[in-house]
């Protein structure tokens, strides 16, 4: 079932709506989807046992999800199921869950952006036993509001100028914003009943601005086909220890944003106007986005998105000593493809 619930009401529904079997969070802003899913889990309490299921398993076993949702814990306590869809799959498993006679354990599922024609999305939104929430990329002002509210929850009083600084260098990724605020909270020993005002000096000392700027530089150089500058930036990123998975996910977020804008361009809109109209793009990034929207067609972006999902899976399965090599090979390959399209 698709509704117009606020984020707060959607999260509260896991306590107030026992008739709902599936809580589904998806959209272009995958960091928001992950954050909301974590908030849903938190509502269930620390005693609720988590059952993690990979969506790939559902392809070969469409009965698995319904079986787990109806099963009881060995110790008689509460359980919930966490499920992430890496791609459009598991439709039969979701149908079995929603049609089953009983399902006592709530399923909390997340996914990336799904078109309105998606079978998975239509199945979930059409069921009275499921509740969905779509996460759109926030405007910069909305992201700043979220950061100020999140800071207050951990006992930090932060002005909008400093909140904007955090939002910009984390690329409006809610998970990274939360990590930065957690560091500040630990630094100040703050709590919801022990409010502390954040000073610019503390933010400068603790923030990950350099790393995030390097990630943005990498993303732009890869998608612009700037192979000469890319080599140096890769070396710098490796030197300061930026995780490979963070770079791939930053690329995934960028590709998702570009895909939505490119669709408008292919319908006849002006690329620069489309970029300027997107409130989630910081003004300093508009030129890079404009070049990328013009360089990458919708078809090529769809192919790149699928490839990045495969690369992410490889990185997760590869030993730590090989992830850097694998990542760097893929970044250079994508950059060369972008350069050929100039």
TrEMBL record:
SUPFAM superfamilies: P-loop containing nucleoside triphosphate hydrolases, post-AAA+ oligomerization domain-like. InterPro entries: DNA_pol3_clamp-load_cplx_C (IPR008921), DNA_polIII_delta (IPR005790), P-loop_NTPase (IPR027417). This is DNA-directed DNA polymerase. Belongs to the DNA polymerase HolA subunit family. GO terms for molecular function: DNA-directed DNA polymerase activity. Signal peptide: none annotated. It catalyses: DNA(n) + a 2'-deoxyribonucleoside 5'-triphosphate = DNA(n+1) + diphosphate. NCBIfam families: holA (TIGR01128). Its EC number is 2.7.7.7. Keywords: DNA replication, DNA-directed DNA polymerase, Nucleotidyltransferase, Transferase. PANTHER family: DNA POLYMERASE III SUBUNIT DELTA.
